[in-house]
Amino acid sequence: MTEQQYKNLTVKALLERKDEIKDKQRQQSTLYIKSLDATIKVQEPANADILDAMEMKDGGADEFLIYNNVVEPNLKSADLQKGYGVQEPEQIVKELFKKAETHMIAQHMMELAGYSKGSVKAVDETKN
Length: 128
Fold this sequence. Notes:
- By secondary structure, the protein is α+β, with helices and mostly antiparallel strands.
- The chain has a domain of about 90 residues: rbstp2171.
- Helix content is about 45%, strand content about 10%.
- The chain is built from 7 helices and 3 strands, in the order ααββααβααα.
- A hairpin with a 4-residue loop joins β1 and β2.
- α3 packs antiparallel against α4 and α4 crosses α7.
- It starts with 10 loop residues before the first helix and ends in a 16-residue tail after the last helix.
């Protein structure tokens, strides 16, 4: 078997790719929601959203990520929230999606942000 060759990341390479790295757009994805028989568009969560979600101790992290990172439809719409009679903005997520869907949507968003197997891989295991 041929082992895959990886190149070392250098300061020079980082400087050459500076504009590309700094201007990187957040990834988007379209998801089909079976219970609604329709699609939604989501985006990769910003680092600040991920950190805030990780600090939530009493639950609600999935709802927080979804509320802040669904691009279409606009879950922050005052008309939508008023129409569903929600008291707190993030409650709209619980009104629209089943709990399992909520978890799967948030998990997909985290995968867009790089939180998945394969985004970092050990290439040289050191044995003791």
